[in-house]
Structures are given as C-alpha cells and as structure tokens.
Amino acid sequence: MNKEIEDFLREWHSARTTLTVHTSGSTGVPKAIEVEKERMRASARMTCRYLNLQQGDTALLCMPLRYIAGMMMVVRSEETGMRLISVEPSNHPLKDLTLAPTFAAMVPSQVYETLKVERERKLFSEIRHVIIGGGALDAALEAELHTLPNHIWHSYGMTETLSHIALRPINEPWFTPLPGITIDKDENNCLVIDAPALNPNRLYTHDIVEFREEAFTPSVLSSPLGGFCQRTKCNGRCHFRIIGRSDNVICSGGIKIQIEEVEACLRPVFGDTIQVTSTPHAKFGEIVVYLTTHPLDEQQLRIIIPNPYWMPKRIIQVDALPRTATGKPDRARAKEMAKNGQNHEKL
Predict the structure, then answer these.
(1) pTM of the full predicted structure?
(2) Beta carbons within 10 angstroms of residue 5's beta carbon
(3) Separation between Cα atoms, residue 231 and residue 167, nearest integer Å
(4) C-beta separation of 160 from 149 below 8 A
(5) Which of 24, 78, 184, 344 falls 20 to 30 Å from 16 in CA-CA distance?
(6) Would you say the C-alpha torsion 87, 44, 18, 163 has a positive or negative sign?
(7) What is the tens place of the pLDDT at every residue in 53-88?
(8) Beta bridge partners of 190
(9) How far does Cα 169 stand from its chain's mean position?
(10) φ and ψ at 232, to 5 degrees?
C-alpha cells in the first residue's frame, strides 16, 4: 500500500466526519468542497449493490486520490471488503498486471490506450465490470467496446454526487439512475438531480437532457444486475441521455476546461484574435482547439498558459472568428469550424 492510500485511509478512519474533495467543474468553477463520509459510504454501497460486488472481489485504483473517482474506489473497497489493487495513474493502467481485477473505473483516454496493446486489451476484456467516466465516449471507441465480452458501463455523475448517479450498459444509449436517485429538467432542458443520500441539495447541471418518456423496459437493465433494478419504480423518467452542454466547458480526457478562463489568459497578449473551442476525438472524448486569425508562436503559448491542459491539440487559422449578430463569440459555429476546418495537428 502506497503512502497516498495510507494517508487517505488514516483520514478516512479519523474522527472527522467530512473530507475535502476537489470538484472538476461540472456544475461551475472548480473548487474544494467538504463532503460527509457517511454520504460517500452511501454512494459506495449503492454502486456495489448495483453491480453485485462483494468481499473477496478485487478493485483497481488507477486514478488520482485527489479527486472523487479515486477516493470512491478506496471507499468501495473498504465498504465491501474488496481487495484494492493500486497502480500509478497513467494511460496504461493494466500494463504491470498479470490478472484482471473484478472491478475497475477508468477515463476514456485510459480505455483508448489500453485497447491498442493486445496483452492489455485481453486483460481489460476479462474485468467483470468496467465503469468509464469523466467525459463523453467517442463513437468509434464505443463501437470497439461493443465487441468485448465483459460488462462495460458508461457512468454519469460529478463530484457533488460523490461519483456517478447513473449508468448505462455500453450497448445501450440510455442512462438509468441508481435506486434512490430522482431526475428532472429545468426550463432550459438541463438535468436536475435529487440524490438525498449523496447530497442534501438539489443539483442543477449544465447538461441538456432528453428523457425516454415510456414505460420501463427490462432489457435495458439485464443480467449483470440480477434483477435488482427491475424492482425500481419507473415514473416515465427512468432513462435519459445527454444531448450536450449548455455552458462552455470542454471535457478532455476527464479534465474539464472552462473556455472563458483560457480566453481570459490569452487576451492580454493576443487580444481578440483567438477563440477557444473543441472537437470530438477518439482518445480524449474532446480536444482543445484554437481558432486564430494570425499565426501563433507555440513557444510563446507555452510561456503564457499556466495549465498544460489548456494547450491546443489543434490550431486552425481562419479569416475571421465566428461572432453572433451582437458581436459575442458564436460557440456553435466555432465547433463546426473546428470539426471541418484545415488544422495544424499537435497530437
């Protein structure tokens, strides 16, 4: 057991009733929040019951303990008696393993790189349950995952919900909330979450949601759950999918990047000659793209930008930046330009 886990467990078993967790920015500007340990325990029990994880199973910790995804893997192990297997966070979390764990949680970039190495791909396919979170899944990556025999899940959640509140089997388009979670949408069609066991407050997200307004369909929640969710009452809003985000956050490889924050950093040097946007990408889900009206000095960018995740993966030179009729950045048009334009590839 490494020192980071030892320190976490010491804090976890201390008399203090809360832990400090750093948010990733799903519901606003990233910040540190205090969460109750008992709510984290409730989340762990919820997931382990849902996936029938038990004492004697093994759980892979391959994400940083600073964030909720890593913390919850440790807590799930503590709650169920699973044996925790810890590896250094990287894009190849299975490279040093010889046996597949029972349960693992990864971000899309880890899955993408793992599947490129035959030995790691085989181990990945032997993990009983894999949860993939931290961002959207590229269509090509999802299609590849369909060919694997194990139970692979795409999760939906955020720090404020103490990891995920909904899962979908990789071969189904609709998320299903875990038992005890109620969902709705606001006047902007953004998802609203009531998860009283996990957070005392109603959570308003920036994710535009579509509900499947129909009766419960057992096939969506089939064999690996052992019928557990078939006992969950459905009010016509059991299943949902995310259409897009209403705010300006790029989620790249599980890292959330606020567009306005990057642009504010660039503006003192480059004025209004750069617009930050994104485009879908197989490995990262999304990548950062800069639209610019002038050639950019990449060395100068590296000096100016304080966060390496803010560096562009693509730079596209355009005649004019997309603007609305009132002169504001046209974010939708910028995404189209990023998707279709000629670019300087940096990956």
Answers:
(1) 0.75
(2) 17
(3) 16
(4) no
(5) 24
(6) positive
(7) 999 999 999 998 988 999 999 999 999 999 999 999
(8) 208
(9) 15
(10) -80, 125
